[in-house]
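Tokens for chain A. Residues wanted.
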């Protein structure tokens, strides 16, 4: 198991190294920092951003918006997903809404949110709507994939509802829920930062990107992008970390 984990980490590092090499080669071929800065130039710009006084509040406000939108969406999606997974009528009722939310362009949501809400709340609202169908859809699939024979057996032997929930429903639901949360974590930061780019709140990574683009500071734009990727990777890792300690794995 340790060897597999070590091998996986080495492959991940190798993949990152290959991407950096490709990035460096392309920047040398283009020979124009304003189009594609070198990796060292981008990371140097990132260090410069870190030294600025506004860096910490900028990152914290983006984190606050992302976490708020993600948690609100996950909580409601869990409730709606369980209800829709167990009740065919409710699923039929909610399915068109989920389809509409998934297909509406993020840009349309952002522009409407700017009209309806303050610039500080636009990213939270956009994140909420974008993440909601991802998590709820996975929860519905998890509930629907519960083995009907196990449920029938539990009914025949009059197994208490609590045991049915913890020993049948949860083991079936958790893998789908974790997959949904993992996907939603990456989408969260894309939605939040995209909304910040357009709505431009006072502090935010998206606002920093917009200013970098206006000033034609491509290195700073890449630096903010690298930071966003790091935040997304860390968030996804933190979400998946508790999975190995969950009781359902030992049932």
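Reply:
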């Amino acid at each position: 198991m340790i060897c597999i984990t070590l091998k996986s980490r080495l492959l991940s590092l190798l993949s990152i190294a290959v991407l950096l090499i490709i990035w460096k080669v392309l920047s040398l071929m283009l020979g124009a920092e304003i189009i594609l800065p070198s990796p060292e130039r981008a990371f140097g710009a990132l260090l410069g951003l870190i030294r600025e006084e506004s860096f910490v509040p900028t990152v914290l406000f983006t984190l606050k918006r992302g976490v708020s939108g993600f948690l609100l969406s996950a909580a409601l999606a869990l409730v709606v997903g369980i209800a829709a997974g167990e009740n065919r009528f409710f699923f039929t009722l909610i399915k068109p809404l989920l389809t509409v939310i998934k297909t509406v362009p993020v840009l349309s949501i952002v522009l409407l949110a700017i009209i309806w809400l303050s610039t500080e709340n636009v990213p939270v609202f956009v994140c909420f709507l974008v993440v909601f169908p991802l998590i709820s859809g996975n929860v519905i699939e998890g509930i629907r994939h519960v083995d009907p024979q196990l449920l029938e057996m539990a009914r025949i032997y009059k197994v208490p509802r609590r045991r049915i929930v913890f020993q049948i429903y949860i083991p079936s639901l958790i893998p789908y829920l974790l997959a949904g949360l993992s996907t939603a974590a990456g989408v969260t930061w894309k939605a939040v930062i995209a909304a910040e780019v357009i709505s431009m709140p006072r502090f935010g990574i998206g606002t920093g990107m917009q200013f970098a683009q206006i000033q034609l500071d491509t290195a700073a734009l890449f630096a903010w992008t690298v930071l966003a990727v790091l935040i997304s990777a860390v968030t996804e890792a933190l979400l998946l970390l508790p999975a190995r300690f969950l009781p359902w794995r030992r049932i």
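The chain is about 80% helix and 0% strand. Residues 1-31 form one domain.
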